[in-house]
Design goal:
The structure holds two protein chains of two kinds. Chain A is mainly α. Chain A is about 65% helix and about 0% strand. Chain A is elongated. Chain B has two domains: about 90 residues, Rna Polymerase Sigma Factor, Chain: A (Orthogonal Bundle), CATH 1.10.1740.10; about 80 residues, Orthogonal Bundle (Arc Repressor Mutant, subunit A), CATH 1.10.10. Chain B is about 70% helix and about 0% strand. In chain B, helix 2 packs across helix 3 and helix 8 packs across helix 9. Chain B is elongated and about 55 Å long. Classes of the chains: A mainly alpha, B mainly alpha.
């Protein structure tokens, strides 16, 4: 047993570590494990860890989550591949038969294609815009920056 | 032999790259259902378990999982790594959803019915005792400020490192550790009056948690 006196600062640091991460050094950040390795068997440390161990036991006795077996299937049932640009390509493909007509028809087809592309690009952009807005919202969401309507500001407790 | 080992190692690395979350998201975004299923298989349990700890009900946790993946499917085609790992990003979505729900709705009672307080004669019953203890601990967890609860959920229950949890919560490691310490101290204080009772048969049952 280590009999050398331990500084108050070190004991406070150990107390903080046990308060944050519990009694099991295996669950501590590695640098903390190394920092306190030489005092873990002292009376002071043993007392601090015993207190933390009690709380670990309480936490482990909380209700265990039990996931319903078909949740993954239900999640997959909602899977839809994104289709933001599919409409444009489908439309262009549908114009292919026009290109096989007589040259005059083909010319008309090209004109139609040009117009249609313009229209579809514009409409595709319109379709995408809300998606990108949603994406931006998600970024804010993920960063916790939205205020209350988004409800995600990180108020200090 | 060495060459063969090297070849195998390269193959393994390639496979790992192919099966990384990031690769799966890209494929799911292109309509690859198998890739989407692999993401679901990999992440649903942890998202569910964390959401359950945060929201305290199975139905609410399932909603959190569904909503998280709905958002993922909606944006999989456009997802680009921007510093954070995919997993971190996904958990942020899930945990922010949970925080949002906690703030929007007043919490209802946990789905599991609270055991009625047994009289002293009934307390011999192990099941009632265990249920009472779980209820007391669930209740103490539920009363924690949301960020302290989230920190404990990620670090204690999901066994994430302080760095991973801090990244998900978008706070510094120091702030995360402070939330953890304050959360655990608050729990200790709120459970103190019941401590002797709770410790009565602590050894006989420890709730398992999903990982």
């Amino acid at each position: 047993m280590n009999m050398a006196p331990i500084s108050t600062e070190r004991l406070e640091a150990l107390q903080f570590c046990a308060d944050a991460f519990g009694a099991d050094p295996a669950r501590w950040p590695s640098e903390r494990r190394a920092e306190f390795a030489d005092i873990l068997d002292t009376n002071e440390a043993v007392a601090i860890l015993a207190e933390a161990r009690t709380l670990d036991g309480f936490l482990n006795a909380a209700t265990a989550p039990r996931m319903s077996e078909d949740l993954m299937n239900r999640v997959m049932a909602n899977y839809q591949p994104p289709k933001a640009q599919a409409g444009l390509f489908d439309f262009l493909r549908s114009l292919a038969p026009v290109m096989r007509l007589a040259p005059a028809g083909a010319l008309a087809g090209i004109g139609a294609l040009g117009m249609a592309s313009g229209v579809m690009s514009a409409s595709a952009q319109e379709t995408l815009t809300p998606e990108y807005e949603a994406l931006a919202y998600m970024d804010d969401l993920a960063l916790g920056e939205l205020s209350d309507d988004g409800g995600l500001s990180w108020d200090e407790e | 032999m060495g060459r063969r080992a090297g070849h195998n190692q390269t193959g393994a690395l390639l496979k790992q790259e192919t099966d990384s979350d990031e690769a799966l998201v890209r494929r799911a975004g292109l309509g690859d259902k198998a890739a989407a299923a692999q993401l679901v298989e990999r992440h649903t349990r942890m998202i569910y378990a964390s959401s359950y700890r945060m929201l305290g009900s199975a139905a609410a946790a399932e909603d959190a999982v569904q909503e998280t993946f709905l958002r993922l499917w909606r944006h999989a085609g456009k997802w680009k790594p921007q510093g954070a790992k995919f997993e971190t990003w996904l958990y942020r979505i899930a945990m922010n959803y949970c925080l949002d729900q906690l703030r929007k709705t007043k919490r209802e009672a946990p789905e599991e019915a609270a055991p009625e307080r047994a009289d002293s004669g009934d307390r011999q019953d192990q099941k009632i005792f265990a249920a009472e203890r779980r209820f007391a601990i669930d209740e103490a967890l539920e009363k924690l400020p949301e960020r302290q609860k989230l920190a404990i959920t990620l670090c204690h229950y999901q066994e994430m490192s302080n760095i991973e949890a801090a990244e998900i919560m978008d706070v510094s490691v120091e702030a995360l550790e402070s939330l953890l310490a304050r959360g655990r101290r608050a729990l200790r204080t709120s459970l103190a009056p019941m401590r002797e009772h709770l410790m009565g048969k602590m050894d006989d049952e420890h709730g398992a948690h999903i990982n």
